[in-house]
Design goal:
This protein is of the alpha+beta class. It has one domain: Hotdog Thioesterase (Thiol Ester Dehydrase, Chain A, Roll), CATH 3.10.129. Helix content is 16%, strand content 39%. The chain is built from two helices and six strands; from the N terminus they run H-E-E-H-E-E-E-E. It has helices at 8-13, 44-60, and strands spanning 16-21, 24-29, 66-77, 85-94, 98-106, 112-124. The chain has a six-stranded antiparallel sheet with strand order 1-2-4-5-6-3, with helices on one face. The chain starts with 7 loop residues before the first helix and ends in an 18-residue tail after the last strand.
């Protein structure tokens, strides 16, 4: 299954979309050595990105023509994440403009490694050049 839009950072990490429907999403991640921290486990930032992306996809799965941006996210780490990981996201509640979600990351043995809740704002997707994406800010900083 392909992601519906190109997300360069997600491509760099190597995430694979497994489920995207009915308020749920599932993404797998096989960490490479460059995704590890000094303890030889998955860096917390990689796990948080996985949670952010799976929750956003759970939100978008009910209306894929919209994009969504993260408003806030709270993450708890339960254990070190090692090896292939699977993340699952769920849309808990939706308003016209906001999505309230939760997500979890599991290791290969099914043990919970991290959990998050997140709030996302739905935004219209406008084409930019040849890409299906949306320029969020009209002010350039370069």
């Amino acid at each position: 299954m392909q992601f519906s839009v190109r997300i360069p950072f997600v491509e760099l990490l190597g995430f694979a979309l497994k489920k995207f429907e009915g308020g749920e999403a599932e993404i797998s991640f096989t960490p490479a050595p460059e995704h590890l921290n000094s303890f030889d486990v998955v860096h917390g930032g990689a796990s948080m990105t996985l949670l952010d992306v799976v929750m956003a996809h759970a939100a978008r799965s009910v209306q894929p023509d919209l994009g969504c941006v993260t408003i806030e996210m709270k993450t708890s780490f339960m254990r070190a994440a090692k090896g292939p990981l699977i993340s699952r996201g769920k849309l808990l509640h939706r308003t016209a403009t906001l999505a309230f979600t939760e997500g979890s990351v599991f290791d290969a043995s099914g043990k919970l490694c991290a959990h998050a809740t997140g709030t996302f704002k739905f935004v219209a997707r406008l084409p930019v050049g040849n890409r299906s994406s949306h320029a969020l800010n009209s002010i350039r900083t370069d």
